[in-house]
Amino acid sequence: MRRRNFLGTSAALGGLGLLAACAPGSDGGEGGGAPAPAADEVDTDIAALGDITLVVWDQEVRGAQNDAIEALLGAFGEKYPNVTVERNSQSFDDLQQQTGLALSGNDVPDVLQVNNARGDMGTFVADGLLTDLTGYAEAYGWTDRFAPSVLGKMSYSEDGVTFGEGNLYGLAQTGEVCGIYYSQKKLDALGLEAPTTWDEVFSLVEAAVEADEQPIALGNLDQWPALHVFGPLQANFVPAETIVTLGMGNSGADWTTEDNLAALTQLADWGSSGALGESPNGLAYDDAWPRYTEGEGVLLIGGSWLGPDMEAVMGEDLRFMAPPPGADGKVATTGGTGIPFSIPAGAKNPAAAAAFIDFITSDDAMEMIAENGGMPVNRTAELAPDSGVNKDIYEAFDAVSTGGTLLPYLDYATPSFADTAGATLQELIGGQTDPAGAAGTLQEDYAAFTEGS
């Protein structure tokens, strides 16, 4: 599927050019973006605007992504024949390299997909390069259409310092969620059912060890995959609100608390006991999940994007579930959205751009996305397939995004946190550091960013 979130920040920083030096809240820009119209000032009569060429830059280049956006472009053209969409599609990495220069140049697109991590959207908000969409959201009903936990992934304060609240700077079409894949055949052989509590997860791991089965498949050579395991696990020990604060890189939390230490200790125990395999840090991510499809592992804790490829091999044996309820008694797990569509501050046609974003994120658009093989961010359970692992995934995302907490990818926290956390968890799993040392390292990066030290 699309980019892996923990690669996002590092890739983003390489493409920001001169803008990369301006951290959120720095003096590099005035912040706030283009003047945001109030809801009653938003012009929704696009037909009355005359003939318009709307320039759209996106990275929806893979099969299901491209099929969905092309279908939506056709439908948009039928509704607004006066608007000609000039689409510039390119890979995520290529778009990353072009975004900073595009936003600050003279030839600015009207609609642009902008990665919502701090190194991208946060920096651009701080530098005043994105339009505040709050008025558009009210005028078009986006706050009713989208769950608050989803909108928070695309919201910043005007100065770019606070992530997860404030003004809206983008809107996404698709969703992602990390959960627990399991082999039904292996559970049946162990005489177990899918776990409904974290204690049952821990008991399942112990039962697999006793049966000489590898409990959890993990390939962590690339470092970031362990964060997809740790994020859901952390929610069993740490209140969701605290994880959101840590993951968004907002001040007010601490990695060295007892509950975070307990989560890190559990991950360390899984590493030292062999629950994650004999050498998870020596196995690449894209080697680990194919081995899982061939029978190496009872569980795989990872992202929704793996489902279709693994199902192609495992068929009905592959199942997926949201993690059990966490410390708050509600389901909470790492997840996010597809890359949001934003309006640059220098866009020539902001009214038409907002109408375009509204159209491609509408209820009808969700259906078209599902029909073309994507996972829509809204109406997910309703549009789930009748069977198969994607049915499980759709329903899990819906349960988390509407009734629980969709926790941020931890690389959102600071511009350097992807590297810091990836290396730290790799060392924790491998026994090169202990939970207290890992917590201290994570806290040092987080505090340096949030406290400006």
Structural write-up:
By secondary structure, this protein is of the alpha/beta class. The chain has 19 helices and 12 strands. Strands 6, 7, 8, 9, 10 and 12 form a 6-stranded mixed beta sheet that branches. It has a 4-stranded mixed beta sheet with strand order 2-1-3-11. Strands 4-5 form a two-stranded antiparallel sheet. Helix 12 packs across helix 19.
Which keywords apply here?
alpha/beta, 12 strands, four-stranded mixed β-sheet, 453 residues, 11% strand
Radius of gyration over C-alpha positions, nearest whole angstrom: 22 Å
Average pLDDT, rounded to a whole number, is 90
Overall form = globular
- Number of extended strands: 12
Number of helices: 19
Helical coverage, percent range: 40-55%
Proportion of residues in β-strands: 5-15%
In whole angstroms, how far apart are the ends? 37 Å
Q: Given the helix and strand composition, which structural class is it?
A: alpha/beta
Low-pLDDT stretches: 1-30
Largest sheet: 6 strands, mixed
Helix-strand blueprint:
Blueprint: H1 5-14, E1 52-58, H2 63-79, E2 83-89, H3 92-104, E3 111-113, H4 118-126, H5 134-140, H6 142-145, H7 148-151, E4 155-156, E5 167-168, E6 175-183, H8 184-190, H9 198-210, E7 216-217, H10 225-237, H11 240-247, H12 258-273, H13 285-293, E8 299-303, H14 307-314, E9 318-321, E10 332-337, E11 341-342, H15 350-360, H16 363-371, H17 389-403, E12 405-407, H18 417-430, H19 435-450
Parallel strand pairs: 1-2, 1-3, 7-8, 10-12
Antiparallel strand pairs: 3-11, 4-5, 6-8, 6-9, 6-10
Helix pairs in contact: 1-18, 2-16, 10-12, 10-18, 12-18, 12-19, 13-14, 18-19
